[in-house]
Amino acid sequence: MFLSRFRVNTARPGARRLLSSPQTMHAAVMSSFPHLLPTDAPTPGTPRVLWRLDQRARAEILLHIVSPDWPDLTHLVEQAGWPAAAAPESPGWETRPYGPFLDHLATGDHWSFRLTANPVHTIRRKEGEPRKITAHLTPTHQMAWLLDPERQKRGGFRILEKPSDRRLLPHGTTQQGQPHHGDQYELSVSDTRSLAFNKSRIPDGTRTKKLVTLVTVTFDGRLEITDPDAMRRTLTQGIGRARAYGCGLLTLAPLAQPTRQPS
Amino acid sequence: MNRTAVLALRLAGPLQSWGASSRFTRRTTESAPTKSGVIGLLASAAGLERGDDRRLAPLAALRFGVRADQPGTRIRDFHTAHHPDTDKSMPLSERFYLADAVFVAAVEGEHTLLKALHEAVRAPMYAPFLGRRSCPPAGPIELGVYEDARLEDVLESVPWQASGWYRRRHRHRPPDTLTVQREKAADEPEATDTLRDQPLSFAAAHRRHAVRAVVTTQVPLPPNPPDTTPRHDLFEALSHVPDDESA
Fold first, then answer.
1. Is A170 within 8 Å of B247 when comparing Cβ atoms?
2. In sequence order, which residues have a C-beta less than 8 Å from that of residue A185 and are 6 or more positions away?
């Protein structure tokens, strides 16, 4: 497994084109692997290509890719990077082996994590209607989607709880005593985006009339690993739906060291 | 053991209304939070009843100051209402509000009392409101207790609390100073400005306020609040040699 990072040059038209549609970005990411043919059906239950865009500022957009093979992002550098600054030792993106890190994961480790996901549930508005996949739209429901004990157990992690002195609701309940998980966990939801885009073509070459609509949110928080094998599966295969469109890639980073006070 | 401490509050919301001299159907607002409004907020958070003047006295004795981080806009509401039961029309009234304003209010007093008030604001008995019950605060209001501090220093050092959009809009020409209205320190000369907002009683039948002297000063613009967006550098984890004890 490999982890790659590519900074998008937002001053270039190619970057605008890629950033404006997850469909285009997905195609560009998948084109980085010469052995992945578009006609290949992906095998479920094996590591796959996952990607995510992290934006910290208007011109600071990082594309992260986790992939089973070494990616060649030359075309991305040419279209949406800094091709003239590329050199053989720094081709315009960074790729590092992910395996050693995955092998070191152990039960009880605490990490900070980030995940862009597509939290959905199925609903039926009236009796007898077929069930329909619907996005969660409020932060409370979006958090509940990730906090679902079954989902955490399957993923091999447990989202940590805040110490009570840092909570807005000290007992995890409202004034009326209703349980409320709003501030109980080390978890925040940000950057809710509703995307709607056309799949450019379907295999027979005609344009589709069907829009793809997605709601993506970014979770930030802290977790504890409860099952390293399940966690490795989560990190390499993703969580939830819309994994082709920049969702489902969970990444770990060391917990922030307490900042030292200048004495 | 007579340590002092300062409790700082961030008073921000879509609407605020701080009346000090309203009469009859024209309900005006001052351009900054009043002492009676903020002390009332603290008293209600601590669960004091309206007529409980004995327990209100130590709160009313706190030294009070407020800093205008974002002055906001004064808006006038022409208020018409009908009685819900009898459908009789209520008197027409004008009510003034401050829209989009942000203030930092601080009270200085005895250490244990302020600790208790801080706890009360974090888990309030009655929900805090910004001068009028229809004006809820936007987000948590407490900014923490400063031990062994003076009111003046806290009002100078608390980061600039203005909204993100306001800071962005004024990033090329931020204000040089912010206005602070506070009560005088023990070693200062007597102030000349007065405001009738020193709470004596919040009894529902007869609220009473005394005159209070106010010092108006300017403080240099404090720094922006620290960036709280989580940093997430996943390459750090790869170079991070995992040790056995978890962080």
1. no
2. A143, A147, A159, A160, A161, A162, A221
The neighbouring-strand residues paired with B217 are: B180
B177-182 and B93-110: which strand pairing?
unpaired
Chain A interface, best mutation among B115, B234, B244, B246, by max A CB count within 10 A: B234
CB contact under 8 A, B235 and A108: no
Question: What pLDDT, on the 0 to 100 scale, is given for residue A258?
Answer: 44
Q: Residue A104 to residues A45, A99, A107, A160, A179: CA-CA distances in angstroms?
A: 21, 9, 10, 20, 37
CB contact (8 A) between residue B236 and residue A254: yes
**Residues 6+ away with beta carbon under 8 Å from A217:** A116, A117, A118, A119, A139, A142, A189, A190, A191, A192, A193
The neighbouring-strand residues paired with A196 are A213
Is B234's CB within 8 Å of A111's CB?
Answer: no
Give the whole-angstrom CA distance, residue B247 versus residue B232: 16
**A114 to chain B: which residues are within 8 Å by CB?**
230, 232, 234
Full pLDDT tens readout for chain B, 247 residues: 578 999 999 999 999 999 988 888 899 999 999 999 999 999 999 999 998 899 999 999 999 999 999 999 999 999 999 999 999 999 999 999 999 999 999 999 999 999 999 999 988 889 999 999 999 999 889 999 999 899 999 999 999 999 989 999 998 999 999 999 999 888 888 877 888 999 999 998 888 999 999 999 999 999 988 877 777 888 887 876 444 433 3
What's the token pair of residue B49? 């009843």
- Read off the tokens for B229: 């967006």
